[in-house]
Amino acid sequence: MIAGIINMIAFVVFASAMCWRLDQIRRQGGGTQAVAMTTAIGALTLAFVVSNKGVARFLNDLLFTGVSRVLLYGLLALGVASLIVVFFFSAKDSVRQRRAGVEAIPLVVAVVGLQVTMLLIPLDLRTKGLSASTTQNIGFAFFFLIASGYLAYGLLQCVRSIRRFLQMADGYLKVSLLILISGLILLAAGSLAQIVYVLSSLLWGVSVLALMQVSSVMSLIGLIAFLVGISYPMLYARTRALFAGLRRRRRYRELEPLWSLVTWAVPGVVLPGHGGDRLKSTPTVLFERRIVEIRDGLTQLSPLLSEEFDAAPDADRAHLLRAAVDKYREAGTSKGAVRDVLPADGNSLDEDAEPLLRLARVL
């Protein structure tokens, strides 16, 4: 029951990650690493589909008995091989590029080995699980040795490469890599425990059930850690974007009194296609637009603002601005040299808005 729930959650996470990766490639384009990561996520997502009992039964009936197991481990192998390329490939290092390309060789050998050994397994054993009796069949035992062996090899290769990135990473990326590397180590350990179980049963007739239990626990915990690690950057980016949007939506509305006063005096500064009070675009775009309109209006009003305005407290600035607006409305224009007023506190959009927000709050 628990394993089924975990598998369902894993499928949803991988499917969501797949959609996110495709969207990233659509927006930013994709190089070798981007395509490899998308391939890895796609292969692992399909592996969860194939692992479903109904899907496995359909495939076995449609093609041949045992094909679902070959596809499952073949997709897992493809996913792991793609992860090796993601973590090993370097756009500037030709040696590492060739090394990443060489990973196709063990992948092909493993997939061919899975297909050949499956054909050697009797039909009545092809869909059975690992046990003391099934591992006595050479074909069955070698199928799982090849599958678990390649997965352990590939996962440990990923761990080796991620360790190099850990030295350069910081912040949320380092957290993501630490969680990811922990999951990969546990998954590799689970595969190694499965190899030991098969060898001990095949060579010495000793069935150590505890090894399979340890393998299952390690694989389950490792899968959860892997899912968290691979999803962490996506969740982090989405969370930051969500909170940034909420903050800018709030600040957009806080600027309303200042914007209304300035645009009432100088309506020409309102950019075409303005949506009024309704947020019809992203909060960031509307927030930036409102800042531009306010600053443009203040520049037009600046000849009517005395030098005292620049150094005055915000409460006094509010009175001086209202007086300048009244003069502008009466004259219909302003005469004199324009100047920048209320300089930004820094270079970012939020720092640009700070002096405007302080003035808007006292209006």
From TrEMBL:
InterPro entries: DUF6545 (IPR046675), MAB_1171c-like (IPR050039)
Protein name: DUF6545 domain-containing protein
Coiled coil: none
Residues of the DUF6545 domain: 246-362
Pfam families for the chain: DUF6545
UniProt keyword terms in alphabetical order: Membrane, Transmembrane, Transmembrane helix
Biological source species: Gordonia asplenii
Residue ranges crossing the lipid bilayer per the database entry: 6-22, 34-50, 70-89, 101-123, 138-156, 177-197, 217-237, 258-275
